[in-house]
Amino acid sequence: MTTTLKPETADQVREAVQWAGGNETPLEVVGSGSKRAFGRPTDLAYTLELRALTGISLYEPEELVLSAAAGTPLAEIERALAGANQQLDFEPPDFRRLLGIDDGGGRGGTLGGAIACNFSGPRRIKAGAARDHFLGFKAISGRGEDFKSGGRVVKNVTGYDLSKLMAGSWGTLGVMTEVTVKVLPAAEKTRTVLVMGADLTAAVEAMTVALRSPYDVSGAAHLPAGLTGTSEVSYVREAGGAVTAVRIEGPGPSVEYRCEVLRRELGRFGQTEELHGMNSSLFWAEVRDLIPFAGAGDRRIVWRISIPPQSAPAVVDRLAGRAGADTLLDWGGGLVWLAVEAADDAAFDEVRAVVAETGGHATLIRAAEEIRAAVPVFQPQADAVAALSRRIKAGLDPLGVLNPGRMYAGV
Q1: Is residue 236 within 8 Å of residue 194, measured between CB atoms?
Q2: Which pLDDT band holds residue 239 (cuts at 50, 70, 90)?
Q3: Segment holding 255, helix H or strand E
Q4: Rounded distance, CA 72 to CA 109, Å?
């Protein structure tokens, strides 16, 4: 039976970690638990849950900066930003439907969780990853000591940039209690150019043309024919074939002009259509949250594969030949989502061998707990990198009390 510790203040977080260190008792560190079914299963007796650490402590729209307790729901952050017509530009995804997570109240992920996992949405090709918007934090190390890094503006980051280290560390290096991020103005208008019926090679070429153009593209994705029927956007759902999408954001007249020119330039790849306003936002939310793989009863194993965009057609051709496999391309083909029928090895050897030939990496996103315990979830590290990771872990969490084994066995 798991005992859940629910601190309400940073002081209580420190006391909990000090207790764990003194008793050599490992802690599973979670925010709201929205990503609990991702990563290696830890099966620990104690959980440190941060959802009670909430509240925006600083928001200065004119300075484009926001600080909040790590357990603050992203929904609360986004409501506050919307009031000033601003947004988290890295577009954090919500994988609850994909992972089958019930967070007991529908609050979704937390700001600290978004940073700790370093997940970013379709706008990453323009705005960068979550870590690029991470200005600073306050945290408790595995030693039970307070530490902090960064500040309210980028130029305040001096010495070791611990913010970059904490982003993507999955709570294994410290328990963040407060997070400071950069925010940016939301676009006045969003439209999406659709190219209908392009095969995979043509789709990657079309996205490459758009991304190399001067039209400031903020999203480029491709859904094959087998996935378009899952969309709530009628143009996509009723396409009857594959759909390639290119997003344009900005001032109204500029967006209208850029979409018009892009439709002419991309017309050689297939018939074009255009999504406006709500339909455009809905479509990119579906891509961001991987809704095509989140349907009721769809329990296929899902891989997240990062590769050079031009390698996407060959990689998909080799991996999607498996029975029941589907792929979805984001980031202009640089991100391939692969769903395959469940197998004891999650097609591990095949996926990683194919991806290795491109110099890319693959992460197992959705699989049964016993598979995630047996198969490396994150890309295996080179020996030198693994040694460095162990040294960093030993420096910040020498007793191994924070999420041990969540990313790699024995770390």
Answers
A1: yes
A2: very high
A3: helix 252-266
A4: 8
Ramachandran region, residue 386 (left: φ > 0; alpha: ψ -120 to 50; beta: rest): alpha
Mean per-residue pLDDT, 319-336:
89
Report helix, strand or coil for 350.
Answer: helix
pLDDT, the chain, mean: 93
- CATH, domain range 291-374: 3.30.70.100
Q: What is the DSSP string of 150-209?
A: E-SSGGG--SS-HHHHHTTSTTSSEEEEEEEEE-EEPPSEEEEEEEES--HHHHHHHHHH
Closest CA to 198 of 246, 243, 254: 243
Q: Assess contact for 242 and 225: CB atoms under 8 A.
A: yes
Mean pLDDT for the stretch of residues 319-343: 89
For residues 291 and 30, give the distance between their C-alpha atoms in angstroms, rounded to a whole number.
23
User: pLDDT band for position 107 (50/70/90)?
Assistant: low
Confidence of residue 159 (pLDDT cuts 50, 70, 90): low
**Cα-based torsion angle of the residue sequence 130, 385, 43, 353 in order, rounded to the nearest 10 degrees:** 90
Please provide residue 44's backbone torsions phi and psi, each rounded to the nearest 5 degrees: -100, 155
Decide if pLDDT at 103 tops 70: no
Q: How far apart are CA 305 and CA 380, in angstroms?
A: 13
pLDDT at residue number 230: 93
Residue (of 196, 192, 212) closest to 256 by Cα position: 192
Q: Is the pLDDT of residue 117 over 70?
A: yes
As a CATH number, domain 3-183 is 3.30.465.10
337 within 8 A of 288, measured Cβ to Cβ? no
- Which CATH architecture fits 189-288? 2-Layer Sandwich (3.30)
| Percent of the chain whose predicted confidence (pLDDT) is above 70 | 96
Q: With 70 as the cut, is the pLDDT of residue 207 above it?
A: yes
**Separation between Cα atoms, residue 143 and residue 20, nearest integer Å:** 9
Instruction: Characterize 223-234 residue by residue with b for buried, 16 or more Cβ atoms within 10 angstroms of its Cβ, and e for exposed.
Output: bbeebbebbebe
| Cα angle for residues 225, 231, 237 (degrees, 5° grid) | 55
Amino acid at site 353: A
Question: Where along the chain do the CATH 3.30.70.100 domains lie?
Answer: 291-374
Domain with CATH 3.30.465.10 in the chain: 3-183
The amino acid occupying position 166 is M
178 forms bridges with which residues in the sheet?
69, 138
Which pair of tokens denotes residue 278?
């709500």
Query: Measured at the alpha carbon of residue 70, what is the angle toward residues 67 and 71, in degrees to the nearest 5?
Result: 125
> Parallel, antiparallel, or unpaired for β 301-306 and 335-340?
antiparallel
